[in-house]
Amino acid sequence: TSKLRYEKIDELNKIFKRAKRQRKSTKQRPKQTLQKLQDEWNKV
Question: Residue spans with biased composition (Basic residues) (predicted)?
Answer without folding.
Answer: 18-30
